[in-house]
Amino acid sequence: MSRRIPSLKALSCFEQTARFGSASRAAEELYLTQSAISRQIQGLEDWLGCKLFNREKQRLVLTPEGENYLQSIRPALDHLESATLTLLSGGSESGVLTVAAPPTFGSRCLIPLLPAFRAQFPDIVINFISRIGMPDFDREQIDIAVLFGDSQWSGLDAHILHGEEMVPICGPQLTSKLDHTPTTDDLRHFPLLHIATRPRGWADWLAASGFNDIDGENGPKFEHFTMAMQAAAAGLGVALLPTFAIEDELKNGRIIAPFGPPQASPFHYYATSPASRSRLPKIRAFMGWLDQLEVTAKLKP
Description:
- It is a single chain.
- This protein is α/β, with parallel strands linked by helices.
- It is built from 12 helices and 12 strands.
- It has helices spanning 8-20, 23-30, 34-48, 64-88, 103-110, 114-120, 137-140, 201-208, 225-233, 247-251, 281-291, 293-299, and strands spanning 53-56, 59-62, 95-101, 124-130, 144-149, 156-162, 165-169, 192-195, 221-222, 238-242, 263-264, 268-274.
- Helix 1 crosses helix 3 (34-48) and helix 2 (23-30) crosses helix 3 (34-48).
């Protein structure tokens, strides 16, 4: 007996339209025309006998029936995709694995360990790209992304990698004219350099150190840890940076950390992948390798 299910094409058009709230964006994603997407949605609504979207201003919004249907079919589509990709890979631990990570964390913490992974899995080729924040796994064809946060990302499997301890640093010349050993209180006399990805970094660190009267909100902003470190080393002010990003510079004396001990962040770095693809052999191999004691011992502080 044949199954009473709509066409896969119609379901894919429905899922992508719901994802973007736009038929035109769904058309770009699926390499179809906007009219083709609209016809598929209309046909699916006729087949189901209910309306799936309402138009609100310039956006398509799911109806309650559409939302319930999406939540019901999405796991099935995910399983179908995973089974297909596993079959295409031959079920073997081989192929190209694309890993995205923040540039400083990737270069300082993860890339130095990759020779060990290659030795264990010589048939997996790793493409490593720089990304900060949540990528579009599908559009960018990313298998694993390193994210910083609390691990509460819907639809992603997350493996903890690394904590983060933040410490104020500067160039030696910045404090050379002080007539006393620098303390946390001296931070009020210097520009505080901020990181775009840690907008509350200074405010939280100062509050945890008991210095709520120091302005931790204002000051020059830099996009990356490396930029802020370079600015601090040049004498532009004091930067708040993770200890893993500055170990070499502290050892060679290019920068100093005289204003107080590191403070642990409540967040961590995680290796994440879409739950629908977590069973792919190449992703299982990489995540399993990260979970090995000898690897995680090197990553976690």
